[in-house]
Amino acid sequence: MWSGPRNISTAMMRSWENRPDCTVVDEPFYAAYLADTGIEHPCREQILLTQSTDYGKVVEELTEHPVSSPLQYQKHMTHHIPRGMNMGWCASMKHCFLIRDPAEVIASYVQKMPSIDEDAIGIRRQAELFTEIAAITGSNPVVIDSNDVLDDPGPILAALCRDLEVDYYPDAMLHWPAGKRSSDGIWASHWYHNVEQSTGFGQNRTGAASLEPAHRELAERMRPFYEEMAVLRIRN
Description:
Blueprint lengths: L1 E2 L5 H9 L4 E5 L3 H8 L6 H7 L4 H10 L6 E7 L18 E4 L2 H8 L8 H4 L1 H15 L4 E4 H6 L1 H12 L5 H5 L13 H4 L1 H5 L15 H18 L6
Parallel strand pairs: 1-3, 2-3, 4-5
Helix pairs in contact: 2-3, 5-13, 7-13
């Protein structure tokens, strides 16, 4: 699942982890991204200590290590993947792109981080990866929009499972127990408070109308990249 930040990506991870046949991997390239860019993020030192900072070793873990369940759900942040990285490692996997309106992404992001730029929200990179993975796999990845999921999660998740050719478990995927998970990254203490309280997909909330001018301008610059994927999204 390829997403940017602040995009119900952790709730979606909860949904898949609650299935009886699936384990999850939470943002495995986070430490490599931090080490590569030198960027300051909450929990930076803990992340660097708890994950590999070597992109190649992370790829090896994702592709060569045995999986303890029939399915594995990998939650990836698109801005964690450097341009020029060989994406051939994921050629045999099934892919979905989780998108969200740029203005809503930004409105949510600035509540958690003091500064923001194009790279931080990963929308352009998401569109680039969509094109790369489509070329590698020979078909367009599945696309879902977070607003569509929040508006009517059952039909969207059912269609997603159909397109990924896996069984759909409505009771498990629409409702999960509140609380922390051992599978959550060490960064959960900063980012996952709302998800830890959740027992399902929440209401569709946005503060996009209150964006300051610079953030609104950034959202409009990112909109074409969002829209090129949005025209392909699953609709209920």
